[in-house]
Every structure is written in C-alpha cells, then in structure tokens.
Amino acid sequence: MKPLLISSICLYMFGSSNRLLLAAGAAAEVVYLGMRGLSLGRLPLLGPHDTLAFFSASIGVMALATAFSPALAGKKWFGTASGMAAGFFALFALLFPASAMPLPQILDTLWFEAHVVLAFFAYALFAVGALLCAGYLGQGERSLLELQYRTALTGWSFFSASMLAGGIWGYYAWGTYWLWTPKELWTSILWIFYALFLHLRLKGTRWDRLAAWLGIAGFFVMLFTYLGVSMLMKSSHSF
Questions:
Q1: Structure pTM?
Q2: CA-CA distances (angstroms) from residue 220 to 102, 116, 158, 199?
Q3: In this structure, how many other beta carbons lie within 10 angstroms of the beta carbon of residue 127?
Q4: Partner of 162 for a Cys bridge, out of 34, 119, 176, 212, CB 3.0 to 4.6 A?
Q5: Rounded distance between C-alpha atoms, residue 239 and residue 220, angstroms
Q6: What digits encode the pLDDT tens for the residues 85-128?
Q7: Rounded Cα–Cα distance for residues 123 and 228 (Å)
Q8: Pure H helices in the chain
C-alpha cells in the first residue's frame, strides 16, 4: 500500500500547481487511507504514521476545495504551496512504522472517531489559511484575507465540534468531560486563539496586516497542539 502514499507525495511535491494533479495526489492518499482502514477494520487514526497521513490528506482535500475560489483564479502558487505542505507531512509519515494494533476498547466509539476526524479537518483549514495569509502579505490582495477568514471560521467550527465530540468521548472513557492534561490545555489555547482572531478580523481593515501575521502564527500554535504536545509532553493524547 505504501507505493500509493509515495505516489501521492510525488504528485503533491512536483505537480500540485495543476489542480488535476493536486486532486490526483489527494485521491491517491485517500485511497491509501481507505485501504489501511479496510485492512485494520477501523479508521486509521492511531499512531504518528496514520495521523500524519490523515493530516496530509486533509490538507490536500481542503486545499483543493479552496483552490476553486475566484480569489485564487490563476494563482498557481497556492496549489504549489498547498501541495508542498501536504507532501511534507506525508513524507514525515513515512518516517514512522504503520501500526496494526487493534483499537483499544476505550477508543472504540464513534465519538472518538468524530473527535479526531473533525480536529484534523480543522488543522488542515488552519494550515490552508496560513498559506493565504502569507499570500496576502506578499501580494497585498485583500480577497486572499477574506478567503482566509472563511477558512478560519470553518476550521474553528470544525474544531468546536471536535471538542464537543471529545468531551462526550471523555465522559464515556474516564467519567468526566474534561481533564487538564497538556493536550486539553493546548486545545483550549488553540480554540481561544482562533476565537480572538476571528473577532479581530471584524474590527476593520487597519488590522489586516496584524490579522495576517496572526493567521500564520495560528498554524504554529496548531502544530504544537498536534505534534508538540504528543512528542514533548506526557498526555493521554500522546502517540
């Protein structure tokens, strides 16, 4: 199955300026994840390999959907940048072994799967938004910032739904909706960061450049929430 993942990396890295090739890269990775899921009998959402591949595929799919916006007409740099981001995380996934462990009973619930899937959709939209912010800073086109606002709002909505699903799963798993572990703490920080960011965007055009820089900073807050906590801190959400 890994040749599918490798082919998606190649399509992302070398052909994503073309929407069709970006779509082909995303499709190859979705098929790879689907085949992984069928072989495991569950969604491939455990361990660094599967979560990085899922994150990569989410970036590819969300970037492809965003690429059809009129604000990005003729802007091949967006497909290239998105493809490089998706390809990087897929390449990172190859550094880790693919886990074949059965789903622990504590995770064997649709609430857990909804929690993780929605979180990665949100992470992908925050990543796409950061690219749009960089594009705005480089080109000065406010339409890019408007598009980033919509991606951030959609991502924040997905993330809010993920937190709700995670709370319900936590209640079934540990008897409480919330635990103050490092992951939950950084989840709160990320949610509050984007809530404040979305409010800042409503204050007018004089805040545009600050909003763009914050949109880029949000990507790194998200990345630490996802990878930094899992790799550097002891948490119930660690790999």
A1: 0.94
A2: 32, 19, 18, 20
A3: 24
A4: 119
A5: 19
A6: 999 999 999 999 998 888 788 888 899 999 999 999 999 999 99
A7: 14
A8: 2-15, 19-40, 47-67, 76-93, 110-139, 142-174, 182-200, 208-223, 229-232
